[in-house]
Amino acid sequence: MHPIQITDSNFEQEVEKSDIPVLIDFWAVWCGPCKMIAPIVEELAVEFEGKAKIGKVDVDNNPVIASKFGIRSIPTLLIFKGGKKVDEIVGAVPKPMILSKLKAQL
Length: 106
Known about the structure:
alpha/beta
């Protein structure tokens, strides 16, 4: 299981209408710190399969979503529950910090 590619066009279906929590990694190809947390995001997609959706948004290709949520620095991880943003993590942080915030929404 890999993270879902979330785009401007599928955001409503994948995130706002999701019946389980969703963690989104806002990233870009040129972002060094984004590459540091990418393996963590991959692991979370496997560990939380069926319990939470793990997705990635390429901010360069999906400016509407990035702008809607005021993403100014990447990586930024947003957690959604019931279609609403409930938490935010900015920067390349250790996996335990991401885990605790995601588990709090399950």
